[in-house]
Amino acid sequence: MDRVTHAYDGPLALFLIGVRVHKPWKLRIVKQVGAAMPKMIAQLEENKAAAERGEAEHLGYLGSRTTLDLSGPTVIQWWRSVEDIYAYANATPLEHRPAWVEFYRVAKGDPGAVTIWHETYTVPPGGVESIYSGPKPFGLAGLSGTMPVGRRGETARERMGRPGAA
Known about the structure:
Blueprint lengths: L2 E4 L5 E10 L5 H26 L8 E9 L2 E8 L2 H9 L5 H12 L6 E10 L8 E2 L5 H6 L1 E3 L7 H4 L7
Antiparallel strand pairs: 1-6, 1-7, 2-4, 2-5, 3-4
């Protein structure tokens, strides 16, 4: 079985965002939250495709993946930089800013109905290690493509730029 690693090279920002629904019967609030993220992801994916065709300036979004557990959905997003995340979040004509303002307006009706949360991580160049064994990588390799694992190093420490035993 081939072992590969991600082909992405450069700085990276990892953005996790999710919602926890505490009062599912508060339909207006839950619906507003549930409808906002798919629109933002669609806009980001459209921009990424247009930028790859040379038709738009790239917003810095590399891709995302949504996970679901019993407490709610979490969206994992890969970006080129934290600055790109901030620029998107504050750009008035794009989907995020109006959705954010609308959430706080609607959530005033019952502040305990949902929790929206996010975490942002800055990853310097060389600060990511990955390995995939199988027919279809996902995560960062699914977004950036792959290369043979040996090009970055045979051990996790070598792939992180830290020589020595794994």
